[in-house]
Design brief:
The protein is built from five helices and five strands, in the order αβββαβααβα. With 153 residues, it is of the alpha/beta class. 16% of the residues are buried.
């Protein structure tokens, strides 16, 4: 024979589970903050800098911007120079990361060649690690595998 809970008993059960969850979260959080912190001068710290890029979409060349389209912005050369500039602040502790959508939806200069020019530009920019975005899957698994094999990161 099965017994079902009344509405009041169900509400009490939900409240108890919520209270228990909050109590466990507080215990866990207090443990994280109660651990002794290393002394910054002790050598236990390494300062790192993450330089992250996403949604490049194979834009290897600068584009015209502004009201009269008389200014240029972007492109692989500009991005590389920008990353180099900021890497100088912490040359030994900088990690270059791309967070997906570096290819796919790309201009003809890259898409016509299956985005190989963009992968080569990323290799030259010295990315250390990257993730896949939804556009990396645009042209199917075979092309994605080729691009991953060509990447040096």
């Amino acid at each position: 024979m099965t017994r079902s809970l009344t509405r009041r008993q169900g509400n009490v059960l939900v409240a108890l589970v919520a209270a228990l969850t909050m109590a466990l979260n507080l215990l866990w959080a207090s443990d994280a903050y109660s651990k002794p912190k290393p002394d910054p001068g002790s050598g236990d710290f390494t300062e790192i800098q993450l330089l992250s890029v996403n949604d490049f979409h194979g834009n290897l060349e600068p584009v015209n911007v502004g009201l009269k389209r008389c200014q240029t912005a972007g492109g692989a050369a500009y991005l590389d120079a920008y990353l180099d500039l900021y890497e100088q602040q912490n040359p030994d502790g900088t990690i270059r990361v791309h967070s997906g959508d570096m290819v796919g939806g790309s201009p003809l200069i890259s898409s016509y060649f299956d985005d190989e020019p963009t992968i080569e530009a990323m290799n030259l920019m010295g990315f250390d690690v990257g993730t896949l975005g939804n556009h990396e899957f645009d042209e199917g698994e075979k092309l994605l595998r080729n691009q991953l094999n060509d990447a040096d990161f």
